[in-house]
Amino acid sequence: MEKKRIVWIELLRIAACVGVLGIHAGSQHFRDMPVDSTVWQVSNFYHGINRFAVACFIMISGSLYLSSKRTWDLKKLWQRNILPVASAYLFWQLFYGFYRIAVNGGPKIGSMEFFKKMLVYVSKPYFHLWYLPMLMGLLIITPLVWEIVNSSRGKQWSQYMILLFLVFQIFTYTAGRFNLPWKEHVQALMNTVHPELVTGYIGYFVLGHYLYEYGLPKKLEKAVYILGTVMIFAGIWLCQKESLMTGKATQAFYENYTFFTFMWSTAVFLFFKEQVSKIKWSQKLEKAVCSLGGCTFGIYLVHAFVRDILYRNGIDSMMIKNTVLAVPVVMLLIFFISWGIVYIVRKIPFIRKWIM
């Protein structure tokens, strides 16, 4: 029997999925347009404003996988959670490897050159598939982290891990984006003691659990909304300023480990948990939302293929002069075409479980 889905989480999952598409649609000409052009500035905006997506996906996983209501069995963890992600990763790596060889007029299928080319492609994640091995890594240590955050002092340990994540990952990484005095020396000193357990995406994983289980006081919640909004617009502005100064496009100030994106992602997650969750939905609409939410993993996997097909047919963020409108149009086209593909393909039970 399928577990009951939480509507606000499904809506956030959909928003994060659209956000990923926004990043990839907005960045189509991020590197090949003059940084003082309107097209680049619009691209920079869409690239930045959607940066909550990856962090929120991880926070959703943390809120569900680290929930105090769950219990973990290692055999079931590997069979039901890790292996399906691993099989999906392998399939889509092979798919995109074949696709790139086909569209680039690569070596003949079955030849030694073909296998060499496939090995090169499969050995390194395709640009959006990096997320899957990262997720597998989080899942592998989930039972250990679950024991920590759900112990008798679980709330305190969660706060401690988030604090360490902020100090040793977020603040250190963000400081490295600025030309500060003695920057290299300070970073080298900070990296001398580098607590590996809390300096990767696990920080967002635990943050999602903490916000889901405990939330924040109302005054602090409002402060997060304000600071998160200010931070992401500051990050976008700093990227524009830096790019104009150097003549080279940069996204350094709203990358996933910056304080700008940390605060923006936290604000978006909290908004859905505390505000969107209050909306009352009809049973029919709730079912539709949960159905779409269940397709987002597949949409994420297939959207790069759809984006490339559209691009090769002249449909991208520069298909019309008004880039402000072109980017969301491309986003919606990619989303709905990908959704249609996933909705049909997921009717096949084996593919539903092991590929998307």
Outline the fold blueprint.
Elements: H1 7-26, H2 38-49, H3 52-65, H4 74-103, H5 112-123, H6 131-149, H7 154-175, H8 183-192, H9 202-213, H10 218-246, H11 259-274, H12 283-293, H13 296-312, H14 323-345, H15 349-354
Helix pairs in contact: 1-2, 1-3, 1-11, 1-12, 1-13, 1-14, 2-10, 3-9, 3-11, 4-5, 4-6, 7-9, 9-11, 10-11, 13-14
Walk me through this protein's architecture.
With 356 residues, the protein is an all-alpha fold. The protein is 71% helix and 0% strand. The protein contains 15 helices and no strands. The longest helix is centred in the first third of the chain and has 30 residues, at 74-103. It is globular and about 60 Å long. The mean pLDDT is 93.
What order do the helices and strands follow?
HHHHHHHHHHHHHHH
> In DSSP terms, counting alpha (H) and pi (I) runs of 4 or more, how many helices?
15
> What is the residue-averaged pLDDT?
93
Please tell me how large the radius of gyration is. Answer: 21 Å
Provide a quick synopsis of the model.
This protein has helices at 7-26, 38-49, 52-65, 74-103, 112-123, 131-149, 154-175, 183-192, 202-213, 218-246, 259-274, 283-293, 296-312, 323-345, 349-354. It has 356 residues and is mainly alpha-helical. Helix 1 (7-26) crosses helix 14 (323-345).
